[in-house]
Fold these 3 entries.
Entry 1:
Amino acid sequence: MNADAKTLAKQFQPKQTKVLKPDRQLVTIRFSPCGKYLAGGGFDSIIRRWDVAATEPVELPPLKGHGGWVQAIVFHPDKRRLFSVDSWGQLFAWPYADKNPQRLWSVDKAHDGWIRDVAISADGKWLATCGFDQMVRIWSTDNGKKLGELAGHGCDVFSVAFHPSGQSVVSGDLKGVVKQWDLKTNKVVKEFDARIMYKLSRLQDVGGVRRLAFDPLGATLGCAGTQPTVGANVQGTPTILLFDWQTGKVKHKMTIGGNGDGFVFDFHFHPAGFVMAVTSGNPGTGKFFFQKPGDAKPFFLATNLPNCHALAVHPDGKHLAVSATNPGSNGNGRQLKNNQYVGNFSPVHLFEMAGA
Amino acid sequence: MIRPAVRFGMALFVVGFLWSSTRAAPPLSERIDALVMAKANGRAASPLADDAEFLRRAYLDLAGVIPSVQEARAFLDDTDPGKRAKMIDKLLSGPDYPRRMAEFFHVMLMERRGDHAQWQEYLHSSFAQNKPWDQMAREILCGFSDSKETRGAPFFYSKRLERYGQNPADYPGLTRDVGRMFLGIDLQCAQCHNHVHIKDYKQADYQGLFAFFTNVYLNDPKMPSIGERPFTKKVEFVSVFGFTKKQTGPRVPGMKEIEVPNYKQGEEYARKPDNKKKDPGRLKFSPLSKLAEQVPQSDAFARNAVNRLWFLMMGRGIVHPLDLHHSKNPPSHPELLDLLAKEFVAHKYDIKWLLGEIARSQTYQRSSMLPENQKVFQPESFLTAHEKLIGAEQLMWSVLQATGELERTRQFAAGIDSLRSLFVKAFANPPKEPEIEFNPSLKGALFILNNNAVQQLLVPRPGNLVDRLSKLPDDKVAEELYLSVLTRLPTADEKSEVEDYLAQKTDRVKALQQLAWALLASTEFCVNH
Amino acid sequence: MKLCKPWEHNLSRRQWLGSVAAGLGGLSFGNLLQPAVADQLKKKNKQVLFIWLDGGISQLESWDPKPGTQFGGPLRAIPTSVPGIHISEVLPKTARQMHHLALVRSLCTKDNSHSAGVARIQRGDPKNRGVTYPFFGSAVAKLLGPGDSGLPPYIWIKPGSGGFKHQDAGFLGPKYGCLAFGDGKPPENLVLPNSISEEDNQARLLLRKKLDQRYAARRPKRSVEATGFVFDMAEQLRKRLDLFDLNKLPEKDRERYGNHDFGRHMLLARRFLEAGVTFVKVNSYGWDTHGDNFNAHMNMVPKFDQAFAAMIEDLVARGMLDNVLVICMSEFGRTPRINGHVGRDHWPEAWSLVMAGCGAKRGVVVGKTNDKGTFVTTEEYDIGHMFHTWFTLLGIDPNKTEYDNDGQPLPIAHPDCHVVKELIA
């Protein structure tokens, strides 16, 4: 580890503080911009809320009404609203801090089928969604009115993000193509090549750009996923490609672990210049790591959390949450516990960074 | 009236009876015949093969190729009554013998999993110097090599320790194969429980054998080389039918469990592994070395070896299938198996000697034609010669020999290699399937029918078969053709068939090609009868 | 741990080897106890299309969706052409063909490993009698015969390698094995070399045959018959080389079946069925979705849906569905529980298959799983029940027909199972 990395490790090494134990599996978790709440979208169509400002986190009544999986959530910078999308094509807006929130508005058929991601513009005016129907759509945060429709991917669109400037939106698809759209013309300006994140294995299109994020200045676009080698029991090496936003060229390619480690499911840029990410691969494997672009190895790596699917960063920049999976989540055939067939769940691990 | 075949059998019976009362035992070949006839139960044996049938068979078995037309003609013309014995000696000491043995043992031991130049070199040089089988077994089973000469031996393990697609190295499969190849027992079903039908195969036997391999790993597939990690933990197992936990250290079936000495961590190696040099190091206590030492001491070892060598010559084991030696699957000729094993050990596991003895026996030299008036073939009686499988390699050499293209092709190693891969693709079994009996396949038929490489061998070139035939008058064609391809003279009918065919066809070369092709595609050519 | 397979418990392989010789004695109904039945069957020209989704399609993302429940996954269910029957949203085209189909949602089988499971299911999981039972394809090839297609009775279209797979036939003997067309292509070396005319070819084959007859005069017949069998098959195939050329079909057909392996293979299967082949198996691999199960199904099931629906449509349009039994299944279903790799594991406890045609009841669902989709709440059907039902639909009474394995009578389906009457129209 170089000196720089050592300093970073000293300053930012996360330490686990608590574990939340929802009884079901989660797709995503995010902190509210006010810092008081952690929200999680689940396999059970509900959005869980925890008050994490209290000494002991308190679970609040959930937000109900979605169908399928609550796939993604974003908070509005106004610290009042939360937007969520599900696998049945619905887009909802919630006053998340209410005791028993009633939906502000809803779009029942925002997409035909699974909505893969939702993003919000820096000024809070627009939402962008993308989905299995191969479309990217722009919505007003005020009333859910559709403002734009970006067509052209030709396959499942997995991820979407706004550039911090608010001028453009990027979307990443199953086949590893990332398109930059001009929001004035709704036309593609540029494409970023992340096709190493795709492979046709027998009948199956495997992989996809699973998460897109910009660094705070908007100079770097990060695309996360896997470099797949085979479908079915999908195998691949977790990978993040960092593109130069201006030139569209790959600046850094970060990989972690090996072929069995699967996908980078979630990641963020830290203002100090490093990337924070989580992975999930073969049952039981999961990595939570911090790495500086350009470094060969992470300066922080935890391998004790099985199958991490989401990473949330607290607005104070010092607290983190990782949603993982219970150990022993897989196995063939009838395995009963106390005569019951039990499902899995996603423990949410709360961390505090060293310098906090 | 007593038919000749029966009389012949009775004569042998008398021989067998006589030698037991005299001092010097007759040669093994005669004792083989006596024991086989003793089990005939009055059934007629096939007559001895004629010279042509014998010659073709001995060539295929001991040289891996049919004889050239000149060799065939010379042998048929030879009037020396001892010519068969002389031919056997000539083949056993000939240059093709080690190649043929390397091919046979390669297919038997590796079952088409893959090949390696060092492994081929090891097999070839071992058979060239007629290395005793127990020594070869030790060299293969110890898993390591410290001399240039045995460098390829670990390939038996290293290939099996490779990952297969996404699957990890198949240790149970390796355990099973060591049992099958070296002891003649297939313990696969005893992995999880005592064998359901075979009382002799115990789960503890499987697990004891398995324990030898638990710490073995693939060090370098290119070398080939494997390594062993220190043995620290016995194998624990529970029958799927029961609940009692048992454990075992390394143990060869039928022998005692080996005491594993305890070394302190860090002191287990006599020579420490060196990753940079890809040296796996040497343990002070190596289970594989123990395995190599003990397997040849097992009774099953010699019995398995002679059974497999008998199979090589006779097309069927005395115990058959070859890897199911157990009390419910008894040998067809128990005394014979005992005798062969005893003599093999007494002759220091000398493979060439044993093959020679079998080859000289009348049992080996019988015709594959059933005795007259007999319809049913009794494979386990060995009274009629089996129609043996011709392996892909034997077939390639023989097709080249028959078409008169052997010498020309041999001059280019690359030519042989590419032709071999075509023949292996068309005629070998898929990986992991033993090649035991003649099973013609669609792909093989299509290869012979339409592949260009086969057609090319029939294009006339100076001195090759079709060229020679094209220069002969119609009434001389059949003899040259039949002797070249089928190693026998044509019958009168066959001779006139050839003449008629040539008379009908306007394009004589084409007609000769079709005649030659028909012989190459015939069952008579494609089996070792 | 690799478990042993039941048929490896044979006392020795002797019986099997013995029957290899027996099975080659001419393509006849020789080792059936009731030859009369076989003759009757031959006239009906029944056929089977057997679609095998290798690795295990998820019942929850196909035939038995449980949307909005704990293990239901992210997908929706959609209505079908039969009121009240819903299937997964990834099968929109098949949903419109539902009135031709029968779903079985109450399969409960015994094996959760692939290595044993594939063969165990396709052999009908018979009672262990120390013999290796034939795969369903070999059984049907034996029981129905080759028909008059001039082609082998049991053909397999699959990705990967091809060849003749005699192992499928078990004790029936290698000639009831399966001829596999790897990547849907004809085998190598099927085309006559330019230098050989059709006439020359027949001439050389006749010479070859005469040699074999002379050779076999005093020898056991097995070798010559086995060689003749493969040479004859080579000729049969060569004469139907045209079947493999999908480019001769209208562009529209190729689009309807889909521009992917499975679509092409299904279209080829239709051609073989039209040509009269008795049993056509089509394999698709890669359904063992231990990881990323939902994306896999969203991606693969629609490709299946396209080709499967097109096939049903075509069989109906040609009036063939009355005589062609269509079966689509895997070796097991997938666990309701979703693992950390967002996959589903192996689940033989409660799963589904779809079938159609040849007198199967149309537009029905048989059997039921509980609300969570974890277990069967109606009578559990093993593969033996399906074998009874399929044989019955093919006009073969599974209770009266037996194999004759060198004197050993063997039932064609597990005697502890029975026909599922609800599936029979």
Note: The radius of gyration of chain A is 19 Å.
Entry 2:
Amino acid sequence: MSEKRALARHPDGDTGKPKSAAHTSAADASLEVLPRRDQASGLQASRERQVSVAPTITAERDLRLDLFRGIALWLIFLDHIPTNIVNWITIRNYGFSDATEIFIFISGYTAAFVYSKAMHERGLMVAGARILRRAWQIYVAHIFLFAIYMAEIAYVQSSSINPVFAEEMGALDFMQHPDETIIQALLLKFKPVHMDVLPLYIVLLLFFPPILWLLQRTATAALGLSVLVYALNWHFGLNLKSYPTGEWYFNPLAWQLLFVFGAWCAIGGAQRLSRVLRSPATTAIAMSFLALSFVVTLTWHFPRLAYYIPRWLGEWMYPIDKTNLDVLRFAHFLALAAITVRFVPSNWPYLKSPILRPAILCGQHSLEIFCLGVFLAFAGHFVMVEFYPGVAMQVLVSVVGVGTMIGIATLISWYKAMERGSGPPKRPLDADLAGGQV
Amino acid sequence: MRTVVAAFLVVLASVCGTRAEPSEACAAPVVLGDFPLERVSVAVAKGGPLKIVVFGTTSSTLGGSDGARDAYPWRLEATLKRLIPGTPVEVVSLAKPRVTADKMVKTFDRVLADEKPTLVIWQTGTFDAMLGVNPGEFLNSLTGGVEKMKSAGVDVILVNMQYNPRTELMVANEAYADNMRWVARERQVPLFDRLSLMRTWNDTGVIDLYAATKDITIAKRLHDCIGRALASLIIDAGRLNALESKTPR
């Protein structure tokens, strides 16, 4: 455990170069749980500290979280480009769940990881204030993205008249009454397509302080409460309202299950599950479920195959409801996670390899990189539709987009390392989308 | 992604021999599943009349002075009249702007009683997707509507939304299109997959859907293609003996 930490902090000795930023940043995140003075002190002190403090924290930051969150961010970006041959590689084509589940789960995990220390030492009020502050940052980021989106829509509306699409352009009617639209957007009721994740995140964080409090006292009760809310929602079908009509695309009452489950795993749950996860039976069940869902997904891509799905199975299974986090989606995520944990241990040597560093870097700055991904998807789609349609352009936009995400993540890491390098840290460290600041 | 699927369907269909000459630019496979239109068969065998009602929204209509003559319901009527000349064919379009599936279903009883159609072409999904109607409720409306027509002894063809590269980032069609595919398969009615079809036409250069223009030429061509493809579907699924090639030029 502390061995890994040591590696995370001093990977290869060249800490001054941007290239090592991933490691530096990973260490930051784990340092988040430590008192400030430890940051300047040596490795040994860190090690001792790690052992002696924070019984609620089960381990140091797990690079797997950053890795898979980074990959999820790439996949979300690719999936957000509507017509893109490259998004054939994303997991939503091969099973029930998609990158959103991974993202929300890991975010819950890291949120608990980061804030439980503060809550443990300084109480509900301080930790709660930090969590709410993080929610505010995400809100600001969301509104910024909304402004960019409106700019694109305004352009599309004025430039693309075609009688074929008289009806579809009605989807842009909201541009006719900006008064109402902008207010509704500020209230998180008007949310353009693909801009649903951050509002979900904000709501989850708003309710996180009491949940974290409960998790620290009786983790099982907190998880049980979460499952109960999910089940009740299943029954009653409650959801937040959207503007002008409809409801939230990601129902917070349903999706909280993944977030709280992630937090529960961070606060000892993962350890409690480890025996189950190691058992061959779990692996076998997870594998079979993944295989089954792969077969079902195939029938979506080749509609003619759908006629081989037995009617009773289809009736039971469909619709697979993303809004309310269908049980099948949750189960598929669990199966994926079980297999991943089984074959990618936390001391997996490749976690330190340069090949995976770009994904880890992106995962460590998830708020920035998520927002960038949403913007790049808008921009890429815009370029493809207005100027250069075609498969080559889809590939180019995808590659350039992921490259830009990596480049910006590297830059942010470098900047943060540099800021810290000059004198004692004046401003707190951050743990990104999940985390707030100390 | 859709491109690949559409290309696959094209290949599949041509292998299965369901489609005509390659010179027919906008001919394309449009049917999912091989569900017969039994009432249509019976009506045509008896010598007609074949009355078709189109339920839909704005995308089943065309603006302009000749809008009525150029929109796909009338292109369908003209094509059918030419292909099955012995049968009186009448197509009535009841397309109205901004109507959800749920609202349309509420008018079914009255329209079925008034018009007594043999076949209903039900175009829907677009406005529901634009409004963000709960996909589960949309599914229920669809199922309810199809059941209502089937129990009234009317054949049904479902028509899904248009493919519009520009509004893909503004309207999330996927869930609604998936639900329509599912209902079509589960209730055993043909689905005219306008979404995939238009994507194929766009990708293969048959119809340029990227064009920004006020001119109605492209729209007319599109509706003509849709009308003819629908006629072809009705002749196939109704097991009708067409006079000539099912997709005349």
Note: Chain B has one domain: 2-237.
Entry 3:
Amino acid sequence: MSEISQHSTPRRAAKSGGMPSLRALLTLLAVLLLAAVPFIAPSMQLLINLALAKGIAVLGVTVLLRAGQVSFGHALFFGISAYAGAFLMASLPGADLILVLVAGVLGAALSGLLVGLFVVRYRGIFFGMLNLAFSMIFWSILEKFYHVTGGADGIRLPRPTVLGMVLERSGFEAVIFYLSIALMVLLGWLTLRWFVSPVGQIFQSLKTNETRLEYLGLSPKRVLLSGYLLSAVLCGVGGSLMAMTQGVVTPEYVWWVRSAEMVFIAVLGGAGSVRGAFIGALIYEIVRVYASAFAGDIWQMLLGGFLLVIILFAPKGIMGIADGLIHRGGKRRATTAEEAR
Amino acid sequence: MTATNKAGTAKPPLLETRELMIKFGGVTAANNVSMQIEAGRNLAIIGPNGAGKTTFLNICTGWIKPRSGKVFLEGEDITPLPPRKIVRRGVARAFQIPQLFTEHTALENLLISAAAREGLRNPLQNLHNIRQRDEMMHLLDLVHCTDVADRVVVELSEGQRKLIDIAVALALKPRLLLMDEPTSGVASSQKHEVMEILVGALAEAGVTSVFVEHDMGIVARHADEVAVWNAGNVQLRGTPQEILEHPDVIRDVIGEEVA
């Protein structure tokens, strides 16, 4: 898939023969399996749809992780996108699904630009906490401006039309489900391509040497802003899909726990891994739902313990374990680009 | 000193500093430094540790702003500009401690440099497929690092990293290259060979160079001109022969026993 891996050391290249195609095959199988969920396990459809929406948002957090930055406030763009869709539906009843999605993404992109212009001046803990601060400011606005935002109750998001057609609930859920899968594939592929492109590689080099970036004639702030915008847009797509799936948007969309959850899932799946974002989201949602059903109030503890085990014994997350199995027997070290997958 | 072009008008020097002053605490790192660097020369800067040699490079590239004084690039005042804007005007820098992207391979470091130079923005193009790949492989060949092209730079020796750092700077196709101890970390047996190749490449590309150096053998053989730094200013300037035989230089910089 990526040329970069093919240009690793001859020793590495020799041992990587056939591996990308195996990975691609497994990905294809996973996508087909997901597409079959409405037929083979219809009760899981909603759960999987929520996981896919979250996965796309986590992909946004993953992009920033590739530059060594952690945002604890990216639910802001998730929420802004969701509310933009809800406001659109309130002012334009019967608006099309695509319009809701576009409005949400535009809202996320615009807010990403405004917030990004400020936060790209900071790194590390300051970057993370400033993002959190912005998300909490927006959360308090949503809570306090009850007459506009509906306060803690939020706003209902009526079912949008689909290409001008008014669909029944089941039909609409199917459309949203397959749209989520299509967007997962498209945005996942685009993000992978972006990671190995010159602009994506420059973005990732922020992690190791900003001084050299400056001495290549580039502005590290501007480079970070480009990736920040991409991450905001991805969170926006996730938020819009989540809002249309649930039919209601509440301040909980931007609550700090939602942001932390995104980071949690990104680390769980494999920090910086595109596939890991979706696998992490699927596992997280499944564990969350079933653990809360069967383990009552201790499901958070179970998830916390699970993450602890991952960090201690598999710091590259679930994708790291999967890669280890694929490479079993080999001692090859993955390149930066390969880790992205 | 000022050159004259074909039209007979005075052509400003490639780089000129006027009365640069900067202090760090009680230490004067640049004390009224005024100097001109003409195009097409290889100027070596020598001097004891703490004399302000690296500070001079930092000021010329905009990393540090002087308390007073100005830096001109072909007559344009570049003093207030950030490093990236000075780089875009054709001034590149190689560092004493190599500044590389440590999670990338040697070749990828050069490809990123080429992508930055060309302003490549296509998000769907693979970095390894850019048109400048052959040119970058040639640069790696020039610094004898072809065999480590696909190795992550953190795995390389200090000497190899220094050479790749220089290649990354050269990849920008600069007019002026500022290098801080370009051969430190390079095996003694390879120092002259590397400098030979480097100076040849610079001449071929028409790149002017300024390099800080402690190895007097390198200075004697590869510099066109030498500036001796002491206590934040240029103490002496002349040909390598004039400078390296000067009694003050032998006493203060080279050391009498070595001489």
Note: Chain B touches chain A through 41 residues (CB under 8 Å).
